[in-house]
Amino acid sequence: MQFRVYQLRILNQVKKKLPLIAYSYAAKNQERLRQIVKTTVLYMMGITLGLSAILFGLRSQVMGIFSIDPEVIAIGQTILLAQLCSTIFAGLSAFFTGIFQAFGSGVQSTVMSSLRGIVFIPILIFGNFLFAVNGVIWANTISEGLTCLVGLILFLGIWKKVNPA
Length: 165
Hints:
single chain, 165 residues, mainly alpha, flat
């Protein structure tokens, strides 16, 4: 639960900037748009990486709150690491989806919204088949990473059109 609050907090910061991005885009103020996008990504990544570093550093203590069994703590640490990595990709994916919405790019926004769910199930099944529990643990991170990569490709394609400078 505590981890989800942290993840939602990061995604909330992205969503707060969308009206400003949409306004700058509609006003054709490319310099302001570039600055908002750059600042938002830097803040989002800084907060995400900073909080992730703290949670990673305290992973034994965090897992120790829930169990004293060394095996449970070990697998909990692996799950926490996978979730921390996933948060970085999820934040960027949410940012790309929001950018597409702000730019009125419905196709790209729909692709981003649908892709995570579409790729997750096959990755989960494939991961379980090949790597058992570790494949299940890392399936979300891999699907978020792939979605983020597709988002980056779509973003770069639109960014060149929107911001020719």
